Predict the structure.
Amino acid sequence: MAGPPSDAGPDKSSRSIYELYDRSGFPWLLRRLERDERPRGDEVAGVLEANEGTPIPPPVLEYICRLLRGEVRQKRGPKRKESAEDTVRATLAAVTYREKLREFTEEAANAQTGTKSKDDDLSARERALQYVCDQFYRKRNISPGRLHNLLSERGLLQSPRQRDHED
């Protein structure tokens, strides 16, 4: 059992295992802060509510002040790993984009000035991106501009010859 609390807080050796891992106690919150974890506001509020009338330990008070000032940022998690399906879809989309871009560019060059279709207002690049969006990313609601960025980030908009010459 834990001994009577002193001004400096309970002696670590007198704490029970239940006090250390009880999510409604200051020892749990202090342990997380010592490990450089960043408890969320709702977790801190739960501890404060459960310990009404108990003096707030200085490290917890300091953390609460920083939290209220907006100085506490959550650590960023690991970046999302790309699945094999995403890689295959992006590669097929890039190949299709290059084929459609060539096709639409030739179409525009060969088009007669007298006939105009609704697609004439879009550039060959925009038409090719829209086609790829409709074919590969329909369910994901990705805009042609976002698709262009995704493929560019992966270096897939360059032709294989261009990529080989960069190495």
In short: Residues 9 and 27 are 10 Å apart (CA to CA). The mean pLDDT is 79. The chain has two domains: 14-68, 84-110+118-160.
